[in-house]
Amino acid sequence: MRPILLKGHERSLTQVKFNREGDLIFSCAKDSVASVWYAINGERLGTFEGHQGTIWSIDVDKFTQYAVTGSADFSIKLWDVQTGQNVYTWKTKTPVRRVEFAPSGDKILAVLDGVMGYPGSVTVYEIPRDTQSHQLHQEPSEEPLFNILTHEGFDMAAVASWSFQDQYIAVGHKDGRVSKYDGATGEFIDALELHTQSVSDIQFSPDGTYFITSSRDSDAKLVDIETLEVLKTYETDCPLNSACITPLKQYVILGGGQDAKDVTTTSSREGKFEARLYHKIFQDEIGRVKGHFGPLNYVAVSPQGTSYASGGEDGFVRLHHFDKSYFDFKYDVEKSAEAQKHMQELESSA
Amino acid sequence: MAAASVEDIKLEDIPVDDIDFSDLENQFQVDSEVNFENFVVVDGAPVAPEAKVPMLSKVLGKLFSQAGKVVDINLPIDEDKKCTKGYLFVEFESAASAKKAIRLLNGKKLDVKHRLLVNSLNDVEKYGSDDFESEFREPKLPEFQPTDYLKSWLQDEQGRDQFVLQKGELTGVFWNRNTQQPDNAVEPRTNWSNTTVKFSPRGTYLFSFHNQGVASWGGKSFERLRRYFHPNTKALAVSPTEKYLVTLSPDPISVPEDAPADFPFGPESNGHQLCVWDIATGVSVKTFALPPNQSLHWPMIKWSFDDRYCARLGPNALAVYDAENNFELLGGKILKIENIMDFSFAPAGVKLAVNRNNDLSSVLAYWTPESNNQSCKATIMEIPTRRVLRTVNLVQVSDVTLHWQKQAEYLCVKVDRHSKSKKTFFTNLEICKLTEKDVPVDKVEMKDLAIKFAWEPTGQRFVTISRTESVDDNPAIPKNVVTFFAPEQKEKAAKDDIKKWKAFATVTDKFSNTISWSPAGRFVVVATLVTPDQRKADFDFYDLDFTGEKTDNTSTDVAAKLKAVAHPDFYGATDLRWDPSGRFVAIWSSAVKHKLENGYKVFTVAGQVVREEMIEAFKNFVWRPRPESLLTNGEKKKVRKNLKEWSAQFEELDAMQADSAMRELILLRRSLFEEWNNYRDEITDSMQHEYGYQIFDQIEFSTADEDFEVVEEIKEEILEEKEEQIDSFDEPATSE
């Protein structure tokens, strides 16, 4: 697997995203400029310029029409992907840690830091779109649709993500909890003490029915959104910053590494700056991808499951197109199950 | 003296011991000389007037003296009618003569009206008495003894094969577990058999040799099923469908006078040495005397493919018996064939071109040598019609052997011929195509003498080992030639083209003495096994359908691609046998034949050792055969098509067998995998139900759905440009 290095950011990457077709990569870093890249060859398509500080988060809607960024400069910006123009800006009370489009594209959520007396919140804004062209048909409202203030007794939210059909919002807290809210009203539904340290990432499965969390406590967990039941646990030996579920193959990719502040005192080998592939069902580690010389801040896999990108503290995005062995690898159990299924199909068709 | 009354006489007072009984004893003494066994009763004699009695008794006396010396003839006479009563008593000198008379004369026709009925006096007494029950009583059938399911080993989940190992006095049956220590199928037993053990051709029964005869074993735990009483049995053979067992003993059967009721042989078997048994019931169905002055070739009874007919070789004759008709001679008589040397049945039913409705015929072949006015002949004959299908005439023949292909599509008559001077020998192969009209024959002429010949069991190819006899016969120089034959493949094969065989590869300078094909075909091992005049064993594994590029073929227009795939070492090997599935070859060194390197090795078709064990006093290795596959050709084809799917499943099984930790892991993974699939199935249902949401595992995305524009950019970069003026081509630059 020969990676493509996306060099363009001057500082640490904070988030990397694929669009729905998997042909574009959106990345943001601490250098206040977000970038869009061709996934096929790593060429930069353009940048979103306008923020004044670190961009903590970026997301693109399912039509690849608008992108949204959340920044430490107390603002959320909506961008036209095609032109790179800033379409709208929401002012926030505190820095924005996470932004994400709802699967429908009609709403965004933003995770606001709990600082300066603000308790922290997950705030949802509406994107008023034309049902046909999906264009904004009016200026978005400055006021949020609803505001989920940090639940009493919980630490503030670190990450959040939408489930299938905008049904729920799953929120990961600094104290390791994961809580669940109604996606339409923001009503609290349930919570779960999942990790012992801060939840660093939440990413849903392609269909949005279960999600993976990563945590600084070195574990990643697979959780069902309906029941909040822990399905799988992946144990590693280093703090994790990000985790994603691969489509096509039954794997998960985990990324992390030594704390940023310790990086200067450890060599890259000891820092464990590797992306790790685990089998989603069997929970075994099947491989590692080396390359970054700082912790991996974010891992994202293309919706088609043919490539993945990691954004590192070292300022690079490494884009990997999986090679044949990745697709061919199967456990004996999977092979024989597949074979049996195939034969059954043959029999039923005969 | 007062008269004593009867009451007064006391028994105690009588001096019994003093009384002399000798007069009474004399009077009633039975003349021990009179033996009733010497008498016969004759019914059905003519009723003659008194005057003719001397005449009649003279005639009858003469008749009965055929059986032995007649002591007396008693013709009772009816006093009223003045004529004989039609019956008489004959006294012989010995009981043996009386028996002979019964055997000879019972049912004898004196003339049209008179038929003599001869019975022993004892019998008349016995059957005529009132005590004798004349009502029919059904004989008591022995109670049914259930046995284990005899084919249980075929139900092994992993489809493993069994084999028997014998070392010293110990015999055990094991499961073949590939690279691992074989599993006991049963606990090894001591003295299970006096010598070797033998499986029936489909593997249902295991036979062991004992002083008293043979025993059959079977079922899951190898219980004893039947005993076949034939003392000192030296050889046994089982018919192809496992119905009959043939045993041979050098000791002639002797039936004792007072044979117990369960004695297997009747008096007619006295002196016979060859016995046919019904395996399932343990009943002797037929016994044979050995033909006099003939060299013995085992098996002495050969069977047709369906066990319907069996035949044996006699002097100048072939005797064919119908097994379904009480082993009577076919057509009531033997087949007279002058000088018949050898014969064999086709190992399968033959679909002759003349047969309708896909009927299968039993076919046998035999050969007769050259005689004064006749050439050597090989004849193919259909049974029971005795229709000769084909005769092959041969001249200058020294020997002939018959080689049937396993499916009986072809018969190869291997003819060893000599030149007129009888100094050089060479072989012709006459290949008869039985399924074609008129049984055409293709002749392959070899330049040297073929000593071994073997058909591919499922195909049309064969391998020979041949040798050129020469004067300087140094046994240390290898000079055997291994030759591979296959039908010629023409580019434009016309339909009615006669199939021709062609040698497509040869390997020279070998000591090889054994050819062993995989039962599944394709792979063959040509080996040199240790024999009294061969010290070092040697093995060559060949693949005849090699898929790689470089083959060992010398010609390409044949349906074969030869490649020598392996050459493993096992210098002390004395025997070699493929397992019934054709996946493994067992090669072993038996202490009975060779003293060094005793033990066995199991190889894959590619010649890799999967298992080896060196065992002191190792004697024998026997694979348990399997019945023919029940799959039709179509089903087999389907399996071949889905080989990848099948092999995936078997690989998992193999991995599980490899060690128990792996097994645990695989089982755990299986349950995890199933658990996950169940979870996803549940979610599918609940999502559909509650939200009308269809879940998925990846975003389906095809380029056909969307409007895509493929933009190709070609970038040309000029790295360097240089202009140079060349004045002339004539002057080379070096001339300066």
List the helices and strands and how they pair.
The complex is a heterodimer of chains A (350) and B (736).
Chain A lengths: L3 E3 L6 E6 L5 E6 L3 E6 L5 E6 L5 E6 L5 E6 L3 E6 L5 E6 L4 E6 L5 E6 L8 E6 L19 E4 L7 E6 L5 E6 L3 E6 L5 E6 L5 E6 L5 E6 L3 E6 L5 E6 L4 E6 L5 E6 L11 H4 L3 E5 L5 E5 L6 E6 L5 E6 L4 E5 L2 H5 L3 H18 L1
Antiparallel strand pairs in A: 1-28, 2-3, 3-4, 4-5, 6-7, 7-8, 8-9, 10-11, 11-12, 12-13, 14-15, 15-16, 16-17, 18-19, 19-20, 20-21, 22-23, 23-24, 24-25, 26-27, 27-28
Chain B lengths: L21 H7 L10 E5 L9 H12 L5 E5 L2 E2 L4 E2 L3 E5 L2 H11 L11 E4 H8 L33 E6 L2 E6 L7 E2 L4 E2 L6 E3 L6 E5 L2 E6 L4 E7 L5 E4 L5 E5 L25 E5 L4 E6 L13 E2 L5 E6 L2 E6 L5 E2 L5 E2 L5 E4 L16 E7 L7 E8 L3 E8 L2 E8 L5 E9 L6 E9 L7 E5 L3 E7 L6 E6 L12 E8 L13 E10 L3 E4 L5 E6 L9 E6 L19 E4 L8 E4 L5 E6 L9 E6 L4 E6 L3 E6 L9 H9 L1 H16 L1 H32 L45
Antiparallel strand pairs in B: 1-5, 1-6, 2-5, 3-4, 7-8, 7-44, 8-9, 8-10, 11-12, 12-13, 13-14, 15-16, 16-17, 17-18, 19-20, 20-21, 21-22, 21-23, 24-25, 25-26, 26-27, 28-29, 29-30, 30-31, 32-33, 33-34, 34-35, 36-37, 37-38, 38-39, 40-41, 41-42, 42-43
Helix pairs in contact in B: 6-7
Protein name (chain B): Eukaryotic translation initiation factor 3 subunit B
Pfam families (chain B): eIF2A (PF08662), RRM_1 (PF00076)
Subcellular location (chain B): Cytoplasm
Total helices of chain B: the number is 7
Distance between the termini of chain A: 41 Å
- Secondary-structure content class of chain B: alpha+beta
Question: Major sheet of chain A, described briefly?
Answer: 4 strands, antiparallel
Q: Biggest sheet of chain A: strands side by side, in what order?
A: 1-28-27-26
Number of spatially distinct domains of chain A: 1
Number of E-type strands of chain B: 44
* Greatest interface: A-B, 37 and 29 residues
Predict the CATH topology of the domain at 36-128 in chain B. Answer: Alpha-Beta Plaits
CATH topology-level fold name of chain A: Methylamine Dehydrogenase, Chain H
Relative strand content of chain B: 25-35%
Count of helices of chain A? 3
Portion in beta strands of chain A: over 45%
CATH superfamily of chain A: YVTN repeat-like/Quinoprotein amine dehydrogenase
CATH superfamily of the domain at 36-128 in chain B: RRM (RNA recognition motif) domain
What best-fitting shape of chain A do the alpha-carbon axes yield?
globular
Tell me, rounded to a whole number, the average pLDDT of chain B: 85
> What is the CATH class name of chain A?
Mainly Beta
Radius of gyration of chain A: 20 Å
Sheet with most strands of chain B: 5 strands, antiparallel
Subunit structure (chain A): Component of the eukaryotic translation initiation factor 3 (eIF-3) complex.
Pfam families (chain A): EIF3I (PF24805)
GO molecular function (chain A): RNA binding; translation initiation factor activity
InterPro entries (chain A): eIF3i, WD40/YVTN_repeat-like_dom_sf, WD40_repeat_CS, WD40_repeat_dom_sf, WD40_rpt
